[in-house]
Amino acid sequence: LPPPTIWNNMLNDRIESHNLTIYESARASAYLNTAMYDSFVSCWYTKFTYWTARPFQRILSDPAFTTVIPTPNFPSYTSGHSTISSTAAIILGQLFPEETIYFLSEAHEAAVSRLWAGIHFPHDNNNGFAVGQQIGKKYVDDMLEPPEPFVVPVRQVLTAPFIWRNNN
């Protein structure tokens, strides 16, 4: 599964188990998904800036070398799973602090799985993980600030009268 699907499933499980309100759920989902999006953009910008070969392309001395999973046909550096997963772990760790260690261990597992599968080098994972953490921390800084003035509490939205305006 793609990393955003995995991390959104984790968030959805916690939204349900913690009985989050619609406002809390929307806020959590917005932060998680925009942070993962920024991580994805950063990762792909890096991939197509440095055009780093994958392990099977570098290990020419052993033509029998094969990867455990199919190797994607795009540059190796940095690892998308590592970058996105470390960002998501930071965000979810802020939202559910009692599970911070669990989220970080899942992110590390995602990174290492790419190495074990033979499709990334250690530096692809390590640097992607570090960048993802930095992006996640920037989002956490924003999460700790008071909400923007244009954010209206859900209870006001749900209780406000609906006004239909006919512009004709």
What characteristics describe this protein?
7 helices; mainly alpha; elongated; 168 residues; disordered C terminus
In short:
The chain is mainly α and 168 residues long. It has helices spanning 3-17, 22-50, 55-58, 80-95, 100-116, 122-143, 154-159. It starts with a helix and ends in a 9-residue tail after the last helix.
Describe the structure.
- The structure is a single chain.
- Helix content is about 65%, strand content about 0%.
- It has helices spanning about 5-15, 20-50, 55-60, 80-95, 100-115, 120-145, 155-160.
- It is elongated.
- The protein is mainly α and about 170 residues long.
- It contains seven helices and no strands.
Blueprint (SSEs and pairs):
Blueprint (H helix, E strand, L loop, with lengths): L2 H15 L4 H29 L4 H4 L21 H16 L4 H17 L5 H22 L10 H6 L9
What is the chain-wise order of helices and strands?
HHHHHHH
Total helical segments: 7
Task: Give the overall pLDDT as a whole number.
Answer: 88
Portion of residues within helices: 55-70%
Question: Radius of gyration, Cα only, in angstroms?
Answer: 20 Å
First-last Cα distance: 48 Å
Q: What low-confidence regions span 5 or more consecutive residues with pLDDT below 50?
A: 157-168
Classify the beta-strand content into a percent band: under 5%
Shape by Cα distribution: elongated
- How many E-type strands? 0
Major sheet description = none
Which class of secondary structure composition applies to the elements?
A: mainly alpha
